[in-house]
Amino acid sequence: MPSIGKVNYISFDQLAFEISDFDSLEFNKDGEFYFAKGILDYVTIINKHNDKFIYQVEKIEDKEKVLSIGENAKFSYIANVWATPVGMITNSKINFNLKSYPFLQDEVYLTTNEEYQIIFGTQGEHTLNLGTIAGRFDAQIQTSKLLTFHSAILGNTGSGKSTTIRQILRAILKQNTNNLHIHVFDIHGEYSEFVDRELNVLDDYSIPLESLELQDWINLVKPSDLVQLPILRMAILLGNALKQKKLNGIWLKVYIAYQAYYGIQSDPVAKRTKIVGILSGTGIDVNQYDSKYANLSPENEKKFVKSLEDKMKELEPDSLKDDQFLQKQINQSFYVVSSFDDLLTGLDFVFYLEESKGNSQARNYSATLETRIKEVQSRYGKLFSGLQIEKNNNPIIVYDVSQLDDDLLLFFVSYISKELFNYNKSKIISSRDVNVLLLEEAHRYVSKEKDTSQLFEIEIFKRIAREGRKFGIFLWLSSQRPSELSGTVLSQINNFLLHRIKNNVDLDYMSKTIPYITQNQLKRLSFLPTGVMYTVGELFPIPIEITVYPPDEKFDVTQTPPIKFNNSSN
Q: In 3-state terms, what secondary structure has residue 392?
């Protein structure tokens, strides 16, 4: 094989050589035709000891060389080529950590097909073929390296993200596994072809309300962190205490009225109206305490208060002796309710309790919380019907979440993620499944703005990012806006499949959060053609570009519909 140049500059991270004989850039060897492609091409440097160093071309510049001096001086043109280190081939194996480097005047050659095989050949029988490398070598990826690490598939709209995901899913279906489950949260209805029946979340799925934990309720009804969160916590606990008979509903009403009698310092008529309303259905005689009477005699006042005390003693004998009776019952309760009505009942009691202490604004401040609970109940009540569905053991499970708003989307995805995490965590290592969570449009819910939220909405994703590997739970984040993704989650990603990204904000954010990528590689992202991805991380020891196999146009649901013009002209 002819040499194409000699090394004239070398450093730890870069090498340069000159090309003066351009005819040497095309030749035939052993029936294989070779030609230099320029930028991103690979070259092999061989030193006097026959060591082989692999470099990748990153820059080429034109340069004139003076052949003679004088008015009629002649020039020849040479190319100055800059390349970055890839690895060193020793004993037909590639070592990606260079322990030595080429030297000045070492010969430079185009990399041969045999050397490509050594560099990119994947060992093992379980591999996925996603496309081609350098237009001449299959991009074989070890299934375990792709599926048992957290991954991110990032790129602008139209850059080929969905095509890459579909190629991965298509390849996975060809493999025979018995404990792999990929959960696809399909926002745009693009993945139904991979399953016999896509799960329409609102029609085909059901979540028992009793299975919701406090964090699930927070994600579902979105309380404000300053005022509404404590109200929601107390409402759930009260709803549980009443349902589990830890508290008697009538006793609680009478107790609140009793507290209001001594605690509310307001207009007497308004105070009496409030107390009479609270005592409705308790059996307490309020005829003489009605708000239409301006004043009561001291004797009737005493009788009324005594009737409250007697009722409380009758229903809960210890309540008058123990000032902390109510709080103790609440402390023994759980953040579990079995219906929206139980939650709303608990919420109403919380408002009454706050008002009995003189906090007249609690109900107003939490009006949006109550509205959200009622909206979820009326709009998405079917999702919480409690009817159990049969567990899906298919390798790919597709959830149609296209009808969910962003808040309910976050709730649903985080709920499923938590359930899978807890289920796998409860099993011994040998019997754990491998669950991969493919989060489409991940920036809509695993967002940077929620990283520091006091509501901890994305805590389950952070936990899976940190601990998921040992429990067999893995995240795949797909997004067109990397700068809006949680930095905490993104920092734990091991594989990045990067498509074209032009936005400077996104590129800057990626440079700060992705440890595997360099500034030159980030610049390249802006110029990637559609369908080409830059792969960095655990999949390959070096960053490489893969041209993903294009989809069959008949089944390409991601293509933009063409404009149809009439044949007639105006």
A: coil
Q: Which tokens hold the place of 131?
A: 């496309």
> pLDDT tens across 235-253, in order?
999 999 999 999 999 999 9
Q: Are 141 and 133 in contact (CB under 8 A)?
A: no
SS3 at position 199: strand
Instruction: Select from 413, 407, 419 the least CA-distant residue to 453.
Output: 407
SS3 call for 27: strand
- Structure confidence at residue 124 (pLDDT): 62
| Average pLDDT score, the chain | 87
DSSP state for residue 513 in the 8-state scheme: H
Query: Looking at the chain, how many residues does it have?
Result: 570
Q: 71: exposed, middle or buried (C-beta count within 10 Å: 0-12, 13-18, 19+)?
A: exposed
Helices H, strands E: what count in the chain?
18, 20
End-to-end alpha-carbon separation of the chain, Å? Answer: 62
| pTM for this predicted structure | 0.84
Pairing mode, if any, of strands 151-154 and 495-498? parallel
Residues 6+ apart with CB under 8 A from 241: 247, 329, 330, 332, 333
Q: Give the list of residues 6+ apart from residue 190 with CB closer than 8 angstroms, or none.
A: 162, 166, 557, 558
Per-residue pLDDT at 462:
96
For residue 495, what is the enclosing H or E element? strand 495-498
For residue 330, count other CB atoms closer than 10 A to its CB: 17
> Which runs of E-coded beta strand occur in 274-386?
none
pLDDT band for position 286 (50/70/90)? Answer: confident
- Token pair, residue 558, equals 């991601």
Give the C-alpha separation, 15 to 103, whole Å: 10
Inter-CA distances, 458 with 19, 139, 215, 405, Å: 54, 34, 10, 16
CB contact burial 456-484 (16+ within 10 A = b; e otherwise): ebbbbbbbbbeebeebbbbbbbbbbbbbb
CB 418, CB 410: distance < 8 Å: no
Phi-psi region of 70 (alpha: psi -120 to 50; beta: other; left: phi over 0): left
Interatomic CA distance for residues 347 and 481, integer angstroms: 38
β-pair partners for 52: 46, 89
3-state class percentages of the chain: helix first, strand second, coil last, to nearest 5? 40, 20, 40
Please indicate whether residue 251 or residue 24 has the higher confidence score (pLDDT). 251
- Phi first, then psi, for residue 216 (nearest 5°) are -65, -45
CA gap 130, 547 in Å, rounded? 8
Angle at 545 between CA 542 and CA 548, to 5 degrees: 130
CB atoms within 10 A of CB 297: 9
For residue range 189-202, what is the model confidence (pLDDT) as tens digits? 889 889 888 889 98
